[in-house]
Amino acid sequence: MISVEEEITVLFSTEIGRLRYIGGASALTEAEVIKVTRDIVARFFNSDFCDIHLNHGDLLEAIWSWVGVKSEHRQKVAELLSMMGSLRPQSSERKSKWVVIRRQLLQELNLPEAVVNRLQTVGLRFCGAADQALARLRGALPTDKPTRKALDELSDLYSHLRVWRIERHVYINPLMPPTEGYHRDLFFQVYLVKDNNPGSLTEGTLLAVGGRYDYLLRQMWGLEHKSNPPGAVGASLALETIIQHSPVDVKPIRYEVSNDVLVCSKGGGGLLAERMELVAELWEENIKAEFVPIPDPSLTEQYEYANEHDIKCLVIITDTGVSQKGSVKVRHLELKKEKEVERENLVSFPATLLTPGEPHC
Questions:
Q1: How sure is the predictor about 356, in pLDDT bands with cuts at 50, 70 and 90?
Q2: Of 30, 40, 241, 309, most Cβ neighbours within 10 A?
Q3: Is residue 253 part of a domain?
């Protein structure tokens, strides 16, 4: 689990900050990296002016085939389309830019008009708010396994982001190419878009990119390993650009060291959304909190995770506790103490529980 404050103190010393996450379920860990990236960016900019663009390598491949762009033309077409990549879907700026791009596709690349028309359909109809774009893509594209898997993973990713209340200005951009060749699955880009203030940017500024690099790990995985390589996702932040465009003074962020909390589930099918929501609330109170990044871990797996990461304090939620009693259990493994806490009081309870020194469990 990545701590925003922990990473910021490290990343301020470099022009490009990098986050990495090894293991966990694909869409879930991608969502967490996007959340951390967005939380960092939100320290400098109003989140209303930050757009998150999502795509998937298999979806991009399906779009090229559906449109009819030959492999030898794809790189050049992608370069032309990148001229409007940062613009919000359905915006007047994007539609105006498409007129210029369309002319270049026809005159410079000599693409057939039917191909250009399909590209225009993708650019103006299939790029958009995540829920709407995914529905349109499912209705238009073939239902082969890679395409279906790509759309399912994008849908899962968006669902996880919604749990963390990151749903505004999240767009599916199926024409967006990855910034790295090894991003063959989910990948994303974060843009700072213009506002209405005089002198503001006319087009988006790229603040962060990221995605899964499972493909790279598979290529590097030695034959001596009998198991499959773990999944991995990462992000790169343009810190120099962020600081340059930031409307606020950049000050060092003091990070108070505290003990970790592991938010666990017992029964209830994993209670993934509830674990994610609770972790986010603890993060907002500057409490280091984690959860096992798979949908339905057993209690044994969660205890093993706590032991491996030297986490002594567990917050355990159950389906009955959440729905009926509105309470959770706080358990300290080292002291072998446990206390039931009202859900609404949990955030204030760990504030004293998790300060350095002797725990109060």
A1: very low
A2: 30
A3: no
